[in-house]
Write a structure and sequence with these properties.
CATH topology: Rossmann fold
Strand content: 15-25%
Order of helices and strands: EHEHEHEHEH
CATH architecture: 3-Layer(aba) Sandwich
CATH superfamily: Response regulator
Structural class: alpha/beta
Largest sheet: 5 strands, parallel
Number of domains: 1
Helix content: 40-55%
């Protein structure tokens, strides 16, 4: 399984990446939405995308909308992992095409629970 982790924080990418590696995921990283689109072109369709909302150049919501417009990425499970806690923001994310929403700060068990909801085999 291959996952794309999109976050402008290197530390958050590392935390999420390490958890994903524990469940045997290969991880590709991007620091913003534009980098993520480039990673999709370079590495092809991942099995899972985890994306932050607040990033420079292209934020997570813009990335989700752009990715969902491309037929190659229409069915890829996407999770928004963000500090945005308002219900209106969550609704915007789901309307744009995310399948799950995880609020920061989070712990390993919360991330694994959301992955399970997405149908990812976590061993939990």
């Amino acid at each position: 399984m291959r996952a794309l982790v999109v976050d402008d924080s290197r530390a958050i990418r590392r935390i999420i990446g390490n958890i994903l590696k524990e469940i045997s995921c290969d991880v590709v990283e991007a620091g913003n939405g534009l980098e993520a689109l480039a990673q999709l072109e370079t590495h092809g369709c991942p099995d899972l995308i985890l994306v932050d909302w607040n990033m420079p150049e292209m934020n997570g919501l813009e990335f989700v909308k752009a990715a969902r417009q491309d037929p190659r990425y229409k069915q890829v499970p996407m999770m928004m992992v963000t500090t945005e806690t308002e219900m209106e923001r969550m609704a915007q994310a789901f309307i744009a095409g995310v399948n799950e929403y995880l609020m920061k700060p989070f712990d390993k068990s919360q991330l694994l629970e959301k992955l399970t909801l997405l149908g990812v085999e976590t061993g939990v």
